[in-house]
Amino acid sequence: AQTVTQSQPEMSVQEAETVTLSCTYDTSESDYYLFWYKQPPSRQMILVIRQEAYKQQNATENRFSVNFQKAAKSFSLKISDSQLGDAAMYFCAYRIFYNTDKLIFGTGTRLQVFP
Amino acid sequence: DGGITQSPKYLFRKEGQNVTLSCEQNLNHDAMYWYRQDPGQGLRLIYYSQIVNDFQKGDIAEGYSVSREKKESFPLTVTSAQKNPTAFYLCASSIQDRAQETQYFGPGTRLLVL
């Protein structure tokens, strides 16, 4: 069964510092996509970053970057120069496409940012 | 502005009542999805549709029904058979192109049982 595990229910970071959120997943597929979504108090899910499994290069979006280790099935999110607006729930998700089309989500990590 | 809209923002259901949640998108996306979010959990797929007049069950379809008569619209009905409907419901859409596999989400509907 495909699963996504986020082992850190809560994390905290000081403004301007760097924090890394962990995510591991389990799959037998070779072609898939990985995502990090942010859910602020408004509860709308906002895409932070995505990674195609066939690409070796780690994705980067401004202050957000990932460390994708395909063999280890690990997909961590690094937030650099943390800002107060980064405080939110962060969900790691894995998308499968063959036979069914869905995102499989982890249980989320709540990130607090302190001034 | 292009985007996904969901209505209402809050919905109250009486026991034995069916209620319908609206989801509309003007992104010209082919695929649409309904997810349910419970406290302390990630999202779980209820139903999805990759093309008009066709849809498939997700992991927790029991007690729910959908229709896809138009590309822009994918309403979700929570029937009286759903015994624990209190949750946050999120609609999403995506382009069915392997180069663009991102699902974009609407603002959600919170359903509460009276």
- Percent range of helical residues of chain A: under 10%
SS-derived structural category of chain A: mainly beta
- Which class of secondary structure composition applies to the elements of chain B? mainly beta
Give the number of DSSP strands of chain A.
12
Q: Strand content of the residues of chain B, in percent?
A: over 45%
Secondary-structure element order of chain A, N to C: EEEEEEEEEEEE
Write down the Rg of chain B.
Answer: 13 Å
**How many beta-strand elements of chain B?**
11
Shape call of chain A: globular
- Greatest interface and its residue counts? A-B, 24 and 26 residues
Spell the H/E element sequence of chain B.
Answer: EEEEEEEEEEE
Calculate the terminal CA-CA distance of chain A, rounded to whole Å: 41 Å
Rg of chain A (C-alpha, Å): 14 Å
Q: Which oligomeric form is depicted?
A: heterodimer
Task: Compile the SSE list and pairings.
The complex is a heterodimer of chains A (115) and B (114).
Chain A: E1 3-5, E2 10-14, E3 19-21, E4 24-26, E5 33-39, E6 46-52, E7 60-61, E8 64-69, E9 74-79, E10 88-96, E11 102-105, E12 109-114
Parallel strand pairs in A: 2-12
Antiparallel strand pairs in A: 1-4, 3-9, 5-6, 5-10, 7-8, 8-9, 10-11, 10-12
Chain B: E1 4-7, E2 10-13, E3 19-25, E4 31-37, E5 43-51, E6 54-57, E7 64-66, E8 76-78, E9 87-94, E10 104-105, E11 109-113
Parallel strand pairs in B: 2-11
Antiparallel strand pairs in B: 1-3, 3-8, 4-5, 4-9, 5-6, 7-8, 9-10, 9-11
